[in-house]
UniProtKB/TrEMBL annotation:
Source species of the chain: Actinomadura litoris
Positions of the Core-binding (CB) domain: 71-152
Sample GO molecular function, one term: DNA binding
GO biological process: one example: DNA recombination
Entries under Pfam families matching the protein: Integrase_N_phage, Phage_int_SAM_3, Phage_integrase
Keyword Transferase listed: no
Identification of the protein by name: Tyrosine-type recombinase/integrase
Amino acid sequence: MAKGNKSGHRRFGNIRKLPSGRFQASYIAPNGQRRPAPETFARKSDAEKWLTLAEAQILSGEWTDPERAKVKVGDYAAQWIEQRAGLRPRTVELYAWLLNKYIVPHLGGVALGKLSTAMIREWRATLLGSGVSTTMAAKAYRLLRAILMTAVEEDKILLRNPCRVRGAGTEEAPERPVLTVAQVFELAERVGVRPVGNIRKLDSGEFRLRYRVKNGHMRRFPQTFATRQEAERVLWNLAEDGHADVTRDDRLRALILLAAFASLRWGEVTALKRRDIDLVNRKVHVRGAYIEQANGRMTLGPTKSRAGLRTVAIPDAIVPHLVAHLTKYTKKDDDALVFTGIKGGPLRRSGFNKITRWKPVVEALGVPNLHFHDLRHTGNTLAADMGVSLRNLMARMGHDNERAALRYQHRSNSADRAIADGLNALVQAAQERDGDDDDGAAGSLVPVA
């Protein structure tokens, strides 16, 4: 007999008739608290149906506390991010930004129990209608879906996840560019090329460009420019056409080659230390990764996933470039960073882009939308084209799969060496086609000299 019921009364819950003639239903919840129906009923049979449904939810384990469902989306989501174990600092920053930028302004004040699929569909349509890209809208939707899934499965606040908008979490990302072997070497050479010149802002607000020609004399460009960016673009074009003199710096050449032919992430390649480079066995040990937080703090932490902790074989053809770099730019102690910023600290993305002038460099290369991560994408694609098994390919990439991460860590060394040897063959073939045996670095196609 249910607690609170008298002999001859209902087995579960209570129903009483109010002075208004309507019926009020209530029951004792699993937590010992009496829970009334959120509304009264015109007929007693409707109240009985409501109690029957509540009892069924308790018996099936699907009952949720309606009081807890009153918590606001913004409060619950903020606590979810704070309490989520294992999130990397950059991921925490991304989640907090998505929450405050796209979710809280629209849904932050809504109680969890009031959320509906229609409401979420309208929220997404509002984001897209206000100019938010489908990529950002998809990221925000996936975050909200993950938060609400915790409310369903772990906290038992909701019966089901209202994020049920078909296709809302899918990103239609454009296909990323893949470089050829020759382009990788050309890029490695180009990131060290700098046109010689200067740009000065005039009293009129326009910009004047002066550049050095090959005989060492400085010349003034005949016209002025409305913006500094326009002047810089012309300076790079002058260097590309061979009219402006250039300087060369090879400190980042090995970084480009290693990122591409060893399929390393930015944080992984910038965290490499001298002891991680095994030149004898032609291997690189990936032991950690740098993370640059929004406040500018650099943190050396674990790899992006468990599978990211790995050893990667490298092609013979890039070993001489690594030897040259280690000799010229890396300190002698084993813990010395292989690639550093100008002042010797960890290399930051902003510093890298400034040193390399990445945008004009990749424009001159003919791949204007190339991102640094596309070097890793290139290496992965070249390796995949060799027909290696998915298991060995994913292991080389350091790709984490919850069901197979441990299997990827215990991969076949011979298969990994086969990938590196195949890459080496591609490099050698490219060198032979270019016929560049006497003009410096193989594959260097820079038309500025």
